[in-house]
Write a structure and sequence with these properties.
With about 280 residues, this protein is α/β, with parallel strands linked by helices. The chain has 5 helices and 17 strands.
């Protein structure tokens, strides 16, 4: 009996020790959880930079940078949302790829706080629109204002003046996309044809010192100044040009050093309000 009693007492002692240890462990765990909770730094705000940006389809990617306040916030994971979903793609790091023309609102959420930014995407003008490599290079160099390597419809729409003289250009194909163009100087190139029928806002055209054999400005009703000297325009070609001129109050045209300069009918032009200079 004494032996059994001793075993029971030992078991009770061990149980007591285990209960004490369990209580200590629970207390320690509770204290740790409380400490962890006390150490969490909540997010108080988030902003996106830049607030607005413009991209071009096929151009360089964009970037949105979130700034979380405070900067030592515990959980700084950002969730992105884009509306509509088919204009751009936003990666986890904020990088943006333009998909199609349009506008999108990007919302960043972190810690229950949100910030929004606007992204506008312009359509691209295909490089093949300008088949002459020299003219294409000129257009990209001068009119790619955001330097993303492509020309957008918005960039083209903003162009009112083109000075591409002495660029060894053989074709101005693609000039038609510049519908807001009022001034064009394409002299001293290698142009054999020139179609400005879509450039209806044109008021000043300088195309001298090219091998042009024909020129039609019948669609350029705002034209008041034209130089086409030192081309290959015969008398017949010059008469046709004069007939295509708009009627103006005081226009000026320069036709010197063409094969038909001395034999063309200048009265056709003067009858429309133009002064013919040889």
């Amino acid at each position: 009996m004494k032996k059994i009693s001793k075993i029971i007492n030992q078991a009770k002692a061990k149980l007591s020790i285990m209960l004490v240890l369990t209580v200590c462990v629970v207390a320690a765990t509770s204290c740790k959880k409380k400490d962890d909770k006390d150490n969490i730094v909540p997010i108080t705000g988030i902003t996106l930079t830049p607030a607005t940006q413009t991209l071009t389809v096929g151009g360089q990617s964009g970037k949105l940078t979130p700034t979380i306040t405070p900067d030592n916030a515990t959980d700084q994971k950002v969730k992105w949302n884009v509306e509509p979903i088919d204009v751009i793609i936003v990666a986890d790091d904020g990088s943006i790829i333009a998909i199609k023309e349009g506008e999108a609102i990007v919302t960043a959420t972190a810690g229950g706080k949100t910030a929004a930014a606007n992204v506008k995407v312009n359509a691209a003008i295909p490089a093949a629109t300008f088949p002459d490599v020299n003219f294409q290079a000129f257009v990209i160099e001068i009119f790619d204002t955001n330097k993303d390597g492509v020309i957008s419809t918005a960039e083209v729409a903003a162009v009112s003046e083109i000075r591409c003289d002495r660029k060894n250009i053989a074709s101005l194909e693609g000039i038609e996309v510049f519908t807001a163009l009022t001034y064009l100087d394409c002299g001293f190139n290698q142009l054999t044809t020139l179609d400005v029928s879509k450039n209806t806002a044109l008021t000043d055209l300088s195309c001298g010192d090219n091998p042009l054999t024909v020129l039609d400005v019948s669609k350029n009703t705002a034209l008041t100044y034209l130089t086409c000297d030192n081309n290959q325009l015969t008398a017949t070609a010059l008469d046709a040009l004069f007939n295509s001129l708009p009627t103006v109050t005081n226009g000026e045209i320069y036709t010197g050093s063409n094969p038909g300069t001395s034999t063309c009918d200048q009265s056709i032009a003067t009858g429309k309000g133009w002064t013919v200079n040889e």
